[in-house]
Amino acid sequence: MAGAGGGALRELLAGRARKRKSTFGSTAELRAAVLSLLDRHQNLSDLLLEVEGSAKLAGEGGREHQELSSESFIVSVLQEQASRLGVPTAVLAAKNAVTKIEQICQCSVSPSQAPLLNLDQRESLSCLLRTVKDLLENNVFSRSHFCQEIWKMKDLPVLEAVWHLHRNGITGLGELLESADGRAVEEWLCSSLCALCERAEGSPQDAEHAGRVLSDFAIVFLQNGFQPSELGRKLEFKKVPHICHAVLQRMLTWVLDAVGKEKEEDVSTLQAMRFWLNVFDVSIYKSAVHPDSLQQFFRHTLTEVLTYNPLLKVSDAIHKQREWSFTRTCSLLTTLYRKLFVAFSAKESICQLQRVLETHEVNWQHVLSCVSTLVVCHAEAELLFKDLLSHLLIKAFENYDMENMITAFLIARQAALEGPAVFMPYSEWFKASFGNASSHHGSSKKALVFLFEFLSELVPFEVAPYLKVHIMYPPFVPTKHRSVLLEYITLAKTRLADLKVAIEDMGLYEDLSSTHNSVQPQGQALRDVEKALQIFENTRKIPTSVIEASIFRRPYYTSWFLPALLRPRVLPKAPDTRMAFIDSLKRADKIPSNLYSTYIQACRARKEKMLQDESKVEPSHSKEPAEQLKAELDALRVLIVDQAKHEDVPAQIAVISDRLSNVLGHNSDENEAAILNSRIQVNVFDPQLEPCHQSVVDLLLTSFCQNLIAASYFNPPDRQGPCLSLFVKMICGHRSLIPALLGRLCQLIYHQGPSLNDAHILGLAAFMIHLCESRSLIPEIEADFGISQPVAEKVLSISEFWSCLLVCRTEESLSFCTRFCTAAVSYLLCKFSSFSCDDLCALVPPSLVKKLQYFVPRLSLEARGITSKEDKADLVWSSLTCPSLNYRRASLCLWKQARFQELLKEKAFQLSFKEWLLLELEMYPEKDVLSASERQDFHYWAIYQWYLPAPSASGGCDGDLEKACGIIIDCILDFSQRLDLGSCGQLKSVSPDIHCKLQERLKDRHRGSALGEQLWRQQELLLHRRILVGLPASTLIVTCRKGKKTVLDCEDFFHYVNSELKNISSRGYALSYGITAHFFRGLLNASLDCEESAEGVNDVLTTCQTKCPIVLFSAVLWWPRLEPLLCSQWKRLFGAPLPEELERLREYQSSAMGFLSSGRVFPLSGPPWISAAFLHCTVQQQSPRGRERNALKRLGTDTEQLLVSLLFFSLMDLISAKIAPKEGVDFQTSLEWALEILQCLEERGISWPLLFLSAEEGSRKYSVLHSAASDRHSRLLPVAFYSLTPGFHHKLLTREHVFLYVALNLYIQLLQLFVEGKDLPQPEQFRRQGLGLESDTALGYDLPCLCCVPQADPLEVISAARRFLLGAIPRCPAKSFGNVGLLLEACEKLDPEVGAALQHFSQPAAAMEVDEELFLF
Q: What does R_g of the chain's alpha carbons equal in angstroms?
């Protein structure tokens, strides 16, 4: 503020200028008068503020005074004063300037404004500085004296005043500091800077001024305090570097002192400290500071932070590090770290951390919070820390260095605290580091002892979760050193006991990777119940862990698990999962009766209480954690939208993760191990979510969609940074939330997809891409789609899971799937535009791209054979956000993209012909968007113009029509296994060897379990049979030229029947009627192409007698139904007599019927087994019981093969009655008929035992019969054999020397069936059958036979056969033992007692001991 003289001068000059012209004759006279006036009335220091104004007024007075400049005027005044005082003019100017500055700074209205000037002060100072600049230009101002005088002021200047001096070039801050007392100026600078930071929280103008001051000062501090020596620049100042360094150090200490006292500090103080941290913004230095100086400053600061006040011991770090996670660390410290890390790469930051750890005593709180910040804010930090941990362990075991060991453990635990989204759980790291023989400690006993000594030293300080990890996943220890491990486990359990944590009270699914304090057993039990219910709901079986706990962990099971399960509640009307689970445990005797009764009574009481007071509701949970989560999600949206704030996103996501943990409570921490180590069960068909989980998932999905839409409004996806990727990765890190997340996605996409709006679809499509990006964090998924769905209880990856959710069957679902797939692929191509095709393959489920290849040509004619390509993916994405979007146009736009067409060339994304067919089969024609004619056009294009000519490498058929037909059949079979093959009967095909294609399918089957393989083959063969019946009958027969004749070739069909089809026949020796009739119809139809049709049919049927007799046996079995059909067809086609072979079959049937009904002689022409088949089938179809015996007696001589064949067919029926009782074959009738035949054979002395041996072992004359039997019936011949024991005559042992060999061979086969667990009929298939047979002539009259064992199971079957053999072996003559030596070894192995008896009685002396006169028969 100017003095009184200054005002008088202005008035004087202004008045004189206005009132009259100057009366002075010259400029010199005027100057002399002014100087005289000033000498008497004016303060010289005030003059420095007035000159500019006076000069201006003089200029307004007229031209005659313009030559009186301000510079010359003030210089004249200063020179006059200086000469009078005897001092240099420059020194006088400097002193007067300092005096005026002191006056300006003292005019502060309030002490709180100490570091900054007010508006009047800034105006006055500005005037002064302009004058001083003029003086400097005229060399009448001494900088050095000015700097010295500044520090002599009574009160040191305001910080902003010093800044103005520096900023305006009056004197640099360095020059000022060099002239000051170092210690005093340090104190002044630090106090002023602190005050400046506090003042920054005032008005926006104050904050702006404070920011400018701080930035310029920081540049000076770095330029002088961290000047690289290698620059070769001569230092101008001696004191300044030390002062700058010291100020920065003291200000850092000011901040670090508050880190441990954040909760105690005033909010304004904390805000001031955050303002100081702006010093660490790299952007403020730009080109003003050498990069090396900047690196040196940041490296020094990081070192100082890590080594600041290293008072905490390692034991403190072990115990407290859980409190030093990213979200729990003081925000000042994490903000400082994040700003420092901007100057370094992640690798450089970790290298600096490693150097500090190796060379300094450190503050463990700061070190570990630094680790947390690094893994949260740097995506690549995980791999770098793994390398660091490996390095530390190697050094530790090389030198047996405890320091490196503890450092590795602390870093691994700290990184794991941030969750699996950023670092592997501690339990996984511990297992990977020490869980196998190749681990660091496995090299020697010394290394092993070193490890356990280290772990033992940790025990007194450990928290329970880490001890549990060490106990449950112990280090690998060789057997000979197990005592070392046992000692440690004992010590660890003692520590757990001290912590009041019993290892016996550990939950069934407790998270051993969690570092939070152990929950109480009752809390863990509740979570175990939830997990057990989830497993039971998906498997309908009591979880193995629950069964084991009920046996081996009885105290926990009865004291904690059952009370948690049996909490009283109002039972639902329809039993829910919990009720079903409780009932299952009750039936398994896993719940005590008294406890169950108490539970039921308590539930009834709860229901009565509810009925009495319907208005009572349970208190709702606090909404505060959810509100906090929502607030943080809203804050994230602000950061994502602003590209300049993307660097703050990782920290904000870490905060969201912490809030999410609070909302989920135990679920986010305690159940991680259960989900980490087990598959996720998802009931896609009927997903059920807990309300609390659904609300959280909805909140997260809504936030993701809103963030995506908001960010896309300003930037395309490729310029949105990694924000959304980090967000999804964070969600996946909460493993316990994944089942609810996947269940909610099932509801939204699988069940509600067509009702979603465009914003939902865009958001979920992008979410799917990022979920696939984080696929390593998601366990395998056991998806239950219901019994009618394409996939049932299949283990899926996350990509496969998405594919199963997008099912297209109707017009609505087709529209939704097209929109979803278009949005997903468009987002992928835009978001990851720089990725190669190989990289893109890992980010999108291939099925989505394949579905687009199906949808787009189906919906758009333009896409069929598209040639033009566009190359702007961002335009596709921007068009998707348009509310009026037509999904067909958007998908076509994507289809035309050059990038998308390149993607289609990748093998993983190519839609094969088979996949196209399966998608088309799933579409419901009546609900299709295409009309019948449009669909036909689409099919014609896809098959004939696209897939048929396309190479097989791209999923086509290489122009091979036969190959295309084979693919069609494979598709129908695959589809039929999942859905009902309703339209199979109308399928047309022109493949001439379709049965060969079916056989190839069976051969290509990947092997699984034996039972699973057997069931699969049975199902597959049944489908094959239905396919064959649905094909035109003539496709089973191939016509070909042989010389000049056209012949019928059935060789492939016969081979297929003999190798496959006969094995699904329940009758054992005949095919089903459907396939039999279909073959004969095809045979007659195909004969039309032959010159001699009858001859062609005869040739085929003659070939059947040797190459495929089962076809003839089938014709015999079904002849009553087959004959009229064939006669009618032949007459319609040719109008001629039946072919000779068909006519012969008619004659056989007529002869059999006449033989049984009228007593005519049975002719023995042709193959005896065909005659036997007709006689057998006729007996079974029409003969009354009791007439068979008489009919057999009337058979003539030379009927050996006929009778043995009859026995064979009766045995086949006997086995069929056992394994397929619903097929209409009666066991009692079959057995009686077999025994009648057997008696007839005995009476005629016909040898029959060789029938039970294979063609290789026995007589080849029965090979035709054996070739017709199914594999299962052949394997069960031992059962049939031992069913006939009542019919074995007493002369059989002496007459048939091979009988003992056959009986032993079949007994061994029976034992092998039992050992292998195959084929033997189950107990319910054996029922007591009253035979009423006389047994006085039976070999086994005193031995129980198979058919007489009530409710027999396989073991009883074997026991009966065994008793029969033990009774028969002593009665066999010596000749019977001739060949049994071949079976002796196997018999001794499977049944030592029978083997011993066989060994004993096979000796000649032992055979003589048997008294032939004993009454054995």
A: 49
Give dist(CA 1025, CA 1019) in Å, integer: 10
Average pLDDT by stretches of 10, the chain with 1417 residues: 40 41 58 55 55 42 44 71 78 85 71 72 87 85 86 85 88 86 86 89 85 92 79 64 92 88 75 91 87 91 93 86 88 90 91 92 93 90 93 93 94 90 88 88 89 92 87 86 89 85 58 49 72 78 81 77 84 80 87 86 80 48 70 87 82 86 60 54 81 87 90 84 88 86 91 88 91 85 63 70 87 90 90 81 86 90 66 53 63 86 86 90 87 85 87 87 82 65 34 47 54 67 74 80 86 88 84 89 89 91 92 92 90 89 90 81 82 88 63 80 90 86 76 88 86 73 87 88 82 83 88 71 41 34 36 69 86 83 84 86 55 33
The full 3-state SS of 642-680, as one line of letters, equals CHHHHHHHHHHHHHHHHHHHHHHHHHHCCCHHHHHCCCE
What is d(CA 550, CA 5) in angstroms, rounded to the nearest whole number? 103
What is the rounded distance in angstroms from the CA atom of residue 1229 to the CA atom of residue 193? 111
User: Distance between CA atoms of 1412 and 1409, rounded to whole angstroms?
Assistant: 9
Residue 1046 pairs in a beta bridge with: 1041
Q: How many CB atoms lie within 10 A of CB 489?
A: 15
Q: Which segments of 476-592 does DSSP mark as H helices, in order?
A: 482-498, 521-539, 544-552, 554-556, 562-565, 577-587
Which residues touch 123 (CB under 8 Å, ≥6 apart)?
none
Q: Which residues contact 168 (CB under 8 A, 6 or more apart)?
A: 129, 133
Q: How far is CA 892 from CA 33, 220, 590, 845, 866, in A?
A: 93, 60, 61, 20, 10
- The rounded distance, in Å, linking the Cα atoms of 366 and 356 is 12
The pLDDT value given to residue 1320? 56
Evaluate whether 1314 touches 1249 at the Cβ level (below 8 Å): no
C-alpha separations of 506 from 523, 524, 535, 1207 in Å: 11, 8, 19, 66
First-residue to last-residue Cα distance in the chain: 146
Residue 870 has what DSSP assignment?
B
The CA distances from residue 939 to 809, 935, 949, in Å, are: 16, 6, 14
What one-character DSSP code corresponds to residue 142?
Answer: -
Q: Give the closest residue to 418 by CA, choosing from 663, 723, 658.
A: 658
Q: How far is CA 984 from CA 31, 973, 1001, 1025, in A?
A: 121, 10, 18, 11
Helix axes 691-714, 624-641, angle to 10 degrees: 20
Q: In what order do the strands lie in the sheet with 794-796?
A: 680-683, 781-784, 794-796
Task: Collapse the DSSP code of 1257 into the 3-class scheme (helix H, G, I; strand E, B; otherwise coil) and give the result.
Answer: coil
Q: What is the DSSP string of 373-431?
A: HHHHH-TTHHHHHHHHHHHHHHHHHHHT-HHHHHHHHHHHHHHHHT-TTTS--HHHHHH
Measured CA to CA, the distance from residue 1102 to residue 1106 in angstroms comes to: 8
The DSSP string of 431-445 is HHHHSSTTSGGGG-H
Question: 3-class DSSP state for residue 1047?
Answer: strand
Q: What angle do CA 219, 222, 227 make, to 5 degrees?
A: 135
- Kindly state the percentage of the chain with pLDDT values over 90: 17
pLDDT of residue 385: 94
From the CB of residue 536, how many other CB atoms can be counted at a distance below 10 Å? 20
Report residue 494 as tokens.
């003692």
Q: Which of 679, 678, 674, 662 is nearest to 507 (CA)?
A: 674
Q: List phi, psi (to 5°) of 362.
A: -120, 160
Tokens of residue 477, six digits: 């220890």
Minimal CA–CA distance to 1273: which of 1224, 1200, 1209? 1209
